[in-house]
Amino acid sequence: MRRPISTFGFGVVDLKLRLALRVVALAAICFFLAAICMLIADDRFQRSQMEAIAEVVGKGLELQLEQFSWVRLENTRFPDLELVASPFLLPGLCIEYRAAADATSQRFFCSGTRSAHAPKVFATLYRWFRRDSEVVRPITFGKRVRGFAVVSVDTTSLIEQSWNDMGRLLAVIAVTLTALCGLIYVAVERLLRPTRIIVSGLEALSASDFSTRLPKFDLAELSSIRTVFNSLAETLERTVAERNALTQRLIAVQDEERLVLSRELHDEFAQSLTAIGAMAASVAHTAKSELPALLPECRGISRATAQMMDTLRGALVRLRPPDIAELGLTASLQSLVADWNSRTRGTPIYEINVAGSIDDLPIAFGTNLYRIVQEAVTNAAKHANAQHVVVRVQSHDRTAADGGPKRSEVELLVEDDGIGFASSAKSGMGLVGMRERVAALDGRMSFETRDSKGTRLRAVVPLPSAKREAVA
After folding, report:
1. What b/e sequence results for 92-111 when a residue is b if at least 16 CB atoms lie within 10 Å of its CB, and e otherwise?
2. From CA 78, how far away is CA 57, in angstroms rounded?
3. Is the peptide bond prior to 79 cis by the omega test (within 30 degrees of 0)?
4. pTM
């Protein structure tokens, strides 16, 4: 048993939506990587900026030491951090002077910090990529280290600044991503329009319309599908045409054999039965006067001969249908149903309803319809164990699904209220013969059976071209 191709756990998803979702997922990954790169770059930039500020502050403090050594004023104090740090009014920036002996530590200048608005996840991620938060620059004077200039930035301020930058990046990515998904959806929608034509073609093939052909496509992949599809349709059309021709020939040969067999039975067997009946009557007449004891046996032979003659007449009717050219299809079908009612004597009851004109059909076409109904009624009589069998024959016009011209059809429907057929009966020779005849007429047949609820056989056959032209 062939297994279906795996879909790797995905259900049936529209291709446009799937591509859009994949683009969103890819964009999310790219945004995450871009955020990491941005955090690393931001850390390096902040570090270089702090080193530059520490260098400027260190040189300023060294200059203050030189000035202090030249001019000793009472109002002069060292270090004057506000003087050297006033140009750097960055949020969260702190400049500190530490003496070399670490005896004193002064922090004179700190800018205001920003309030925390960044998400905790971003803050945690930022701290993962954040290095030391301060830069130390030694202050030398007279070849001695007199102290250190320490520059640091409040982490909360750095996180807020990075989050603001990230928010702008996120807004740009969101707008770009929305536009990209829209363009992808529209582009894929346009590219997939030919697939609707392919699906329509496949549906037509499944409905046995093998004349369907796909048009040319711009895409090379769809052109390959078109080539294979049209080749398959041509092969199926040719194969079905050959099968129908063979089926029609087989049906014609079968009808010819039935006609020959019925003629032989009528000419040979019927005459023999007639002769037997006559001899039995003659023997009975002689026995009545000369040997009365043989009279019951003679009468038994006469009854058996009469029963065999009735059976033979029924077989002849089944082998050779009535002259449809003389009686018409409607009268022939009514005669068929009446014959079954006379045989069954009320159980089951056979009923026929004919709607539309079916008497001016071609002889071969009408004969095939008669045989289909005959076989369906015979199956119902043999297998259904029904109380009521209804035969409906209707000729009507049907509008094509694609908006094309109307199609004239004959619909046959045989229903019963019996016990239903077993699964083995569904593939019996009777149904096979009916399917062959319906297929030879380019029709379609369906057979439904439910236990204890009867069976329903439906065949729809298009009218032959000559009849369609007459109706038109």
Report:
1. bbbbbbbeeeeeeeeeebeb
2. 13
3. yes
4. 0.50
Taking only the tens place, the pLDDT of each residue in 368-383 is: 888 888 888 888 888 7
Q: Per the structure block, which two tokens stand in for 177?
A: 């991503």
CA contacts within 13 A on the Cβ side of 183:
7
Q: What is the CB-side half-sphere exposure of residue 245 using CA atoms within 13 A?
A: 6
CA angle 8, 9, 12 (to 5 degrees): 100
Residue in the block written with tokens 């329509």: 200
What's the order of all strands across the beta sheet hosting 134-141?
Answer: 105-110, 93-99, 144-153, 134-141
Contact 332, 371 (CB under 8 A): no
- Backbone torsions φ then ψ of 211, nearest 5 degrees: -85, 0
Tens digits of residue pLDDT in 235-281: 988 888 888 788 778 877 877 787 788 778 877 887 888 888 888 88
What is the side-by-side strand order in the sheet with 444-449? Answer: 349-355, 388-398, 407-416, 455-462, 444-449
Q: Residue 236 contacts by C-beta under 8 Å, 6 or more apart in sequence?
A: 205, 210
